[in-house]
Amino acid sequence: MTEERKQELAKNGTVQHNRKTLYLLQQAYVNNKGTHGDVCYNANAIDEDGNEYYITWDTTKTWDALTEGANMIEAIHQKENNSEDCLSEKHRLDQIVEKYGDPEIYNFDESDACDWDNPSEIEER
């Protein structure tokens, strides 16, 4: 692989794996994970020898909690303020705000969604 090609591919990002640099062929994209509404991020990559890889990153606990909080805020706004469901969601939201910060003011930037330097899985294809 030429240096020019490496530089071009590195624009999407790189990951170190088994003493090799893996070049992402695309920006990581969000993907469903399981049946509980969980998500992960995936991207295809290649190494200098042309071997292909499929990379998975799990989202961070902070990202998951703040996303849950943002979804709760939306749900609370759609319900009666004093319903039992609403009070339960408000209590959970208070816990999220206390531990992670306020989802209403959090800037949801996907650069914070995962630990991009540490993929959860790298599959050689």
Give an overview in words.
Strand 3 and strand 4 (38-46) form a beta hairpin. The radius of gyration is 19 Å and the shape is elongated. The protein is α+β, with helices and mostly antiparallel strands. 34% of the residues lie in helices and 27% in strands. Strands 1, 2, 3, 4, 5 and 6 form a six-stranded antiparallel sheet that branches. The chain folds into two domains: 3-59 and 114-124, no CATH class; 62-100.
Task: Give me some keywords for this one.
single chain; alpha+beta; 3 helices; 6 strands; elongated
| Oligomeric state of shown chains | single chain
**Terminal Cα separation, in Å?**
19 Å
- β-strand number: 6
Coarse structural class = alpha+beta
Shape descriptor: elongated
Count of distinct structural domains: 2
* H and E string: HEEEEEHHE
Catalogue the unreliable spans.
Answer: none
TL;DR of this structure?
The protein is α+β, with helices and mostly antiparallel strands and 125 residues long.
What layout of secondary structure does this protein have?
Elements: H1 3-10, E1 14-17, E2 20-24, E3 29-33, E4 38-46, E5 52-58, H2 61-78, H3 84-100, E6 121-124
Helix pairs in contact: 2-3
